[in-house]
Design goal:
heterodimer; A: 200 residues; mainly alpha; 7 helices; globular; B: 252 residues; 0% strand
Chain lengths: 200, 252
């Protein structure tokens, strides 16, 4: 069970991690191995934060933002997996699948923002000399604000939907007692990691 | 000179803040070099002209971009003294962005970041099947961030900017002499071996249930083989469903 206030808090905090993935720094605060445990603490399930963090870190290990390629979003996958886990009372498989699928959807939101940015940058073209530096500073602030509130909005719309979906999934889901499955999940990520080195 | 360089360094963290499909990192690039241009040209007409000229297409690796920014800072200085032409500055900027991006993608994204992730995950998984209950979370997270940022990320950005400015275009030859490819190959080899060791040690912790060990190696093998044919994300979803079904059939 997650309260509305917790939903809001998770959205606000998770969106800070999203800033790190593109608009500021890339210090890797947005990686699942960091987001998972930190958010797990916030939600009162630190051990599952580590579990999801490790599994998703390995899964997203070889997905690299080369050139204009935007990979599925690892931060979203981690946040959604953890929230879904909490809402579904511990259904790890449903949580991971939902998280990964929403990571793919978030990627398109990112692409849309990048496309919108193309329109905004023309603001400088006709600027008079005395305002040009101010406008560049404002554009940078715009980039940060848009990325942050885009994520907040995404989560605020998504979480109530997840609440409804997971409740229904729990009603119809036949596979409930498969907790041992957790132990083999790192194998998938390790396989991807090895493939990353075999291919290139 | 020190203050503008530090300002440029700090601003370089915002390089991708308005990443767009038309000119990519152009806003971030101009935002980064403004303190330097201000130092060279003060707030004269030339200052605004240079901003507009540098507002064109720019795209490279966000960390190694600092090498190119350092080079451009040096060239701008020479341009202001009429030692080189505007074309020289722009040509260098365009010609070097691609190779620097390629080095960055290979060195940082597909080698250093992957290596740090493997070390951090390896730390957690070294605790065996109950790693998520037993490992110290803070050691894992802080260790990962310190390893990635303090040893790799921040020195690369700072030294890249400094040496880019100091050596200008010569920096490329110096990077080539440094034997970067050999370093990359060594880190990649270590990472692959580490992953294998993690897999073996982790699977040993599952030995009390042979069903889990078999499933562990089958999953590892399948993800390794399928990776060439299907996108990673879809393989995960597929394998999760198959595993759930296998568990459902054999365990219930």
């Amino acid at each position: 069970m997650i309260t509305e206030i917790q939903f809001l808090l998770i959205s606000l905090i998770s969106s800070v991690f999203h800033l790190d993935s593109l608009v500021f720094g890339q210090f890797m605060f947005h990686r699942p191995i960091v987001v998972g445990p930190l958010l797990g603490f916030l939600m009162g399930v630190p051990q599952y934060g580590v579990l999801f963090g490790c599994i998703l870190e390995l899964v997203f290990l070889s997905l690299i933002p080369v050139g204009i390629k935007v990979p599925p979003d690892a931060t979203t996958a981690t946040v959604v997996s953890l929230v879904c886990f909490k809402l579904s009372n511990g259904n790890i498989i449903v949580s991971l699948i939902t998280g990964i699928l929403l990571g793919i959807i978030y990627k398109y939101l990112d692409i849309l923002t990048r496309s919108l940015n193309s329109m905004v940058i023309n603001w400088i073209e006709n600027a008079k000399d005395d305002v040009i530096t101010t406008r560049i500073n404002l554009l940078v602030v715009y980039g940060i604000v848009v990325t942050y509130f885009r994520s907040v909005l995404f989560y605020l719309i998504l979480f109530p939907l997840l609440n409804v979906i997971t409740k229904n999934i729990n009603k119809i889901c036949l596979i409930t007692n498969i907790n041992d499955l957790v132990y083999i999940l790192p194998a998938i990520g390790i396989g991807f990691g090895l493939a990353h080195f075999v291919e290139k | 000179m020190k203050t503008p360089i530090i300002c440029v360094f700090l601003r370089s963290f915002f390089l991708q803040s308005v990443w767009n499909y038309e000119r990519m990192q152009n806003v971030g690039f101009v935002f980064t070099i403004i303190p330097w241009l201000k130092k060279i040209y003060d707030r004269t007409q030339k200052f605004y002209e240079r901003i507009k000229i540098h507002y064109g297409f720019f795209n490279t690796h966000p960390y190694l971009a600092n090498v190119l920014i350092g080079i451009i800072m040096k060239l701008e200085e020479q341009y202001s003294k009429n030692e080189i032409t505007n074309e020289d500055v722009l040509k260098t900027k365009t010609l070097l962005a691609g190779p620097i991006a390629a080095i960055g993608d290979r060195l940082i994204w597909s080698t250093w970041r992957v290596f740090c992730s493997i070390v951090a995950v390896g730390y957690f998984l070294s605790y065996g099947r109950n790693f998520y209950n037993e490992a110290n979370v803070w050691v894992g997270i802080i260790g990962y961030l310190v390893l990635y940022n303090i040893i790799g990320h921040i020195p690369i950005r700072f030294l890249g900017l400094y040496f880019g400015y100091e050596y200008s275009k010569e920096i490329i030859e110096r990077i080539a002499k440094f034997g970067l490819q050999k370093t990359v190959n060594i880190i990649r080899a270590i990472s692959a071996v580490l992953l294998l060791i993690i897999a073996v040690f982790y699977s040993l912790s599952l030995l009390d249930n042979i069903f889990l060990v078999i499933l562990f190696w089958v999953n590892l093998f399948l993800s390794l083989v399928l990776h060439k044919k299907i996108a990673a994300i879809y393989i995960v979803v597929l394998l999760l469903c198959i595993n759930a079904l296998v568990f459902f059939i054999f365990k219930l």
